[in-house]
Amino acid sequence: MQLIRDGKATSGTAIFALEQTNGKGQRGRIWESVKGENIMLTVIMDAEQFSPMDQFPVSAAVILGCHDFFSAYAGEETCIKWPNDLYWRDRKAGGILIENIIGKGKWKWSVIGIGININQVTFDAYHHKAVSLKQITGKHFDSIALAQELCSHLENRFKEMEKNSTPNTVFEFNKRLFKKGQVVKFRRNQIVFEATVLQSNMQGELEIQHSTTETIRHGEIEWLL
Fold first, then answer.
1. Do 30 and 90 reside in the same domain of the chain?
2. Range of the domain at 61
3. 139 within 8 A of 132, measured Cβ to Cβ
4. 144 and 121, same domain (yes or no)
5. Measured between alpha carbons, how far is 103 from 82 in angstroms, rounded to an integer?
6. Mean pLDDT in order along the chain per 10 residues (225 residues)
7. How many separate domains does the chain show?
8. How far does CA 26 lie from the centroid of its chain?
9. Are residues 148 and 125 in the same domain?
10. Mean pLDDT across the chain, nearest whole number?
11. Alpha-carbon distance 76 to 73, whole Å?
12. Do 54 and 79 fall within a single domain?
C-alpha cells in the first residue's frame, strides 16, 4: 500500500515476508505464522483492465492459482472453501485477503495478500482446524522457492481469465468448491440450520438450498464444521 501511495508500485510485484507481527485475516481475525516457515506473500496488481464488478472473479482467479499450486503437492483432496480459503479435507491450509483501491468509478489497484501453511506443524489458535504441506506430505520445503512457483500459477490463472472470460473463472472456482452438493450446518443469528451448498454466483454470493434457494453474502453466516 505504501508503494502505491508513493507512486512506486509496479504491477506484478510480489513481496515475501519471512515474519509477520500483525498478520490480518478475514473479519478481524489474526493470521498466525511461525517465522520463516510459511508463504506470506503480497502481490500488487494493476486492476484498470477490470471493472469494479469483476472483484469476485479476480478473487476467484487468485484462489484458483493457490489451489493449482497446493494441489500439485497435496493432491486432489485440496479444495476451495467459499469465499477465499484454501482447504485440504476439512482443514484450512491458506487464505487470501484482497484490498482494492477504487477511484472515480475505476478499479486502480488490487493488493493481494496470500498466506499458505508450508512447514508449520503447530498452530496455537487453530490447531484442530489448520493444516500445512509438511503435515500432509511429511516433507520440509523451501518456502521462498514455493512462493515463486505460486506466482507462476497466479500469472497463469490471470492469463486464462483474460483469454476465457470471467464467467469461466467462476465456473472453475465452483468445480473445486468445498462441500459442493453436500448438506452443511450453518449458523445465522445464533440459529443453526442445514442447507445444501450449491455454488457461488458471479457476485461472489454463496447459493444454498434448504426450504428455499437463497444467496448468502460473505459474513452473513458461519460454517459449523
1. yes
2. 2-175
3. no
4. yes
5. 27
6. 94 92 62 85 94 93 98 98 96 95 92 96 80 97 97 95 88 97 96 97 96 94 90
7. 2
8. 10
9. yes
10. 92
11. 9
12. yes
